[in-house]
Amino acid sequence: MAAVSVVQFWLILTSVICLFNWVEASKAGHKVDTCPETKDLWESRAASESASCGGVSEYHCLRDKDGKKRELCLEKTRILQGNCPIVTEKGFLNWEPCNESLPGCPDNHYLSNEVYKFPFCFGNNTSSSIKSENKDMEEDSDIEIIVPVVILILVAVGVVLAGLIYYLMIQRNRGPNYEPKDEEVCLMENDKRYSRAEIVKKDHVQQGLAALQKHDALLITGMLGTAVTSTAESIMKEFSNSESHSGWSFKLCKCQELPVKFDPKTIYFVYGWFGLYNDNPCSMNDVKIYLNTINSTLKKKPLNKFIIGLRSDFYRRYGSDLEDFEDLFHKSMSLDSVNKMRDQGYEDHLKNKIKNACSNSECLCRRLTFDMIMDKKEGKIGIPLKLAILTNDHDLIATFLEYKNFKKTLMENFKSLKTSDLDLYQCVMYVCLKGDLKCSEDVDKRLVNSMHFNISKESVEQKMSVMGKYVRMRKSDERQKVEASKATYVFWHPFIYICAFHALFESNPEDVVKYCNLDAILQLVRPPSKSDRKTNYFTVTATEEQVKIFQGRIKSEGQDEMYAAHPLLEFK
């Protein structure tokens, strides 16, 4: 039996290596002879390949480090002049600088899916570049193809036989209650204590770790709910736990809360750019001040590194206004790209953590499919957040199956509390209006009376156990191990707050513009539009009368000059 086990081991090891190499190669797309060099050819090729792309990923044709051309799906990103986009072995987009004095080297910023404007970046892009020049080379090429195929076939046959024996042996040794170990899952959950922890991809962590080891600044972009913060935190943990960076620590802070002096040997993840829930159009000057603080710090060559977490839609909207900070954005990674093979772990999570974890064979979760989660109509929030929402509250699945819309699902859930548990509804909406809940303080009696809420500090404390479905302790308090009775609580994700805000605005719009915290209003409320343009997914539209109420509030608080450029204040 020992001899058979050794044979099995080597067969399985060989097959795993072959399969691993095949999977890694497939992530980087498939090889093509040439990349299209005109817009028409590019769009024609993109149309034929579009079926394999999903979400916000789009067709790309890029050169790899060996000069070969590959087609794959990636989220488009802005490339700075003097750089060419290339694809890495694992299917990620990287930059390769070129000599700007050479003809063809990009002399302007451009989008990665418009690289056809600069054929220079493709290198040798003629058909002959990968074709055989003579018969001998053709024969060599045939051999190069046939030999691996034969080897794979032989290995596959051996693996089938050995794998069957191995599987039976393993099953015999496992108990009836066996569950897979964490190492067998291709995704990492950032915080095991919460079922709603956003899922982080190991590929993203490895990519970010490699970048942080070589550079002092890393930009991570992603749509809301793509686990930007969780990914950054995982990268920083890996970095600070490595032997080569002993003594390093990390901190998370909003850009508005950057310290005057940065601690040495510390990585800072800075988030909240332009707004936590949505963008505040008046925040550009502040953003530039915060970025300049980081830029100035790095120029002094301190023992600091920075990860900047930025919503990808904000980056597309405001990136051209931030060109003075190219050094901070030079090394970047996007979490938005959708790749069916690389996203297999998400589908496994849906199956294992949501559907298989449910003991009710008649539960509606059996009807839930990954295609519903992947639906492009729901492309405004990331898959990690969608899975976290359904994992956090299994009862939401029935409502989601009805509406096929996460925002609508959560809004209906909040509205239903008004009839099923009025005290809980008022406690949750109190947190929405205030922006957070400071357990050490009494409730804002003026706000409570204005909203006709029947809640007190004691009633809020009594509801904290069920409020845990919607709120969490602020991470800084959690890391500092602040007592629950003295901690500050916030909605567990900005999107959950957005949905609560939308639900409250739908029923009490005038109360919202009168009493809600200013940050939320400036980010989430817009005046009536004179065009037929659709309302932003994250914002609500106030009536003319509601805008006037808000303008009166701002003026009475003496902040009309500060926010004069905001659409709500500009509206006449």
UniProtKB/TrEMBL annotation:
The keyword Signal applies. Residues 1-25 form the signal peptide. InterPro entries: nSTAND3 (IPR049050). Coiled coil: none annotated. It holds the Pfam family nSTAND3. Residues 200-353 form the Novel STAND NTPase domain. Keywords: Membrane, Signal, Transmembrane, Transmembrane helix. The chain crosses the membrane at residues 145-168. This is Novel STAND NTPase 3 domain-containing protein. It comes from Magallana gigas (Pacific oyster).
